[in-house]
Specification:
The chain is α/β, with parallel strands linked by helices and 310 residues long. The chain has one domain (13-228, 249-288): NADP-dependent oxidoreductase domain (TIM Barrel, Alpha-Beta Barrel). Helix content is 41%, strand content 15%. It contains 12 helices and 10 strands. The strands form 2 sheets. It has an 8-stranded parallel beta barrel with strand order 1-2-3-4-5-6-7-10, surrounded by 5 helices. Strands 8-9 form a two-stranded antiparallel ribbon. Helix 3 packs across helix 5. The protein is globular, with a radius of gyration of 19 Å. The structure holds NADP nicotinamide-adenine-dinucleotide phosphate.
Amino acid sequence: MINSSRLRIPSPLTLGLSTLGRDTTGGSAEERDAIRFAERVLTSGHTYVDTSNNYAAGRSEAVLGAAAIRRGAARSADIITKVDVDPITGRFDRDRVLRSFDESRARLGVDTIPLLHLHDPDMLTMSEALGPGGAVEGLIELRSSGAVGAIGIAGGHIPMMSAYVSSGVFDAVLCHNRFTIVDHSATALFEDARRRGMVVFNAAPFGAGLLSGGPRPGTRYAYLPASDALLDWTRAAEHICREYELSLPAVALAFSLQSPLIDSTVVGISSANRLDDLDELQRQTVPSELWEQIDQLGPAPTPIVDPAVR
Ligand SMILES: NC(=O)c1ccc[n+]([C@@H]2O[C@H](COP(=O)([O-])OP(=O)(O)OC[C@H]3O[C@@H](n4cnc5c(N)ncnc54)[C@H](OP(=O)(O)O)[C@@H]3O)[C@@H](O)[C@H]2O)c1
């Protein structure tokens, strides 16, 4: 149940475009293909797509902007983006937030953004971020001016994310790889966000590979190498899924979709075929006995270690 009045209610899936436009250059055939894919995404019926100032070094936003212009009013999805640290100076304060937002607006070809996240502020102490002249001041200014509808905090480390959520400043939270069948550690964070009436986005339900591609040697979970112990745990989970004639990705997605804590699950896709795949996965029903059997496997050995909040 969403209490925040600042945002449209998101559809169950938000499409993540962190790889969009990677390795493309302006005017190339690859860019034209990427724009066509982005047009499909923008007209796919989902409420939001998720990008960031720094995804594919700005190319994700540039391609999305070109696609949005081509689709005009025909598009259904609004674009959520994020402000990022200056890649050259390492600065991430109020002024950088305003510049990052202006860069995003220029690439996307829009004046306003419905939701702007503070993206991965891991390098900042809480007092740097929340203090005078800090990044959060810039976000609040943008919200007060109406240039952004709502502001959010996006990242992956639980102690840091909890500190931002408990600041009471943000309308939305996005946490990745921490609310999956492998790692449940965002549960309390999302419960807190929900109590505060924030909109909750759960990103990377497939652990960015392990739970979509399966437990193959060399695969990663949350952008980190998956240990042999994690591969074994995932094989056991996959075996349970098969007993119910379900695939591992179907169950991984359902874990997030069926949770009352989550408003929208952010899934990364890089081709139009995935839109149909996701429709098919979303239709699968997971019986409660399957969750009980996965619980009986015990906690999965996640590779993520959270730094202390500074
Ligand atoms: N700090 C942050 O703000 C932050 C951090 C992480 C992620 N995010 C957001 O969350 C999004 C999702 O994260 P992610 O992409 O890293 O992880 P993810 O969604 O867990 O996994 C993406 C992978 O799943 C595959 N996939 C997608 N749909 C599938 C389907 N129906 N069947 C099988 N495989 C499928 C994709 O394949 P293809 O590539 O072949 O399509 C891709 O390899 C990002 O794009 C980004 O928007 C934000």
